[in-house]
Specification:
Elements (H helix, E strand, L loop, with lengths): L3 E4 L4 E4 L2 H8 L2 H12 L4 H8 L6 H6 L24 H7 L58
Antiparallel strand pairs: 1-2
Length: 152
Amino acid sequence: MVRKYYCDYCDRSFPDNAEARRKHLDGAQHQTAVKLHYDSYRNPAEILVENARHPPCRKFLETGHCQFGLSCRYSHVPPGIDFSVFDPNLYLSQNPYLLMQQQPQLQKPRPQPQQLQLTRYKLPPGLPKDLPPSLRPPPPSGYDFSNAPQWG
């Protein structure tokens, strides 16, 4: 039986041998996934200041938007902005789309939320009609908590 190695960063399994593991760890997809994982714990303002030293992103300069957000390898800082004078947090608050770290090839499909089904309560036949309040089903309109005392 072949043992499998599971990579938490890439959400992939492969045979657990030295060659396969080295090949996976040296791969661009794994290195990108590891960088995205650790960058998700960093302060976005620090990432922005660090990326300001890179060459400018052509897509960002042409359209004012880049699909990669802060994970882009190029700078999204317009020429002339100096973060020693300008607050990077203020810049991020004015450009919230930079906070979206999108990597389409690494995203997992999200399950669609299921529609909530309202349950209609009916008393089983044969039960007495004068049940205590704790055993009665809730009213269809819900309970009125406006007159309830505040707890805590």
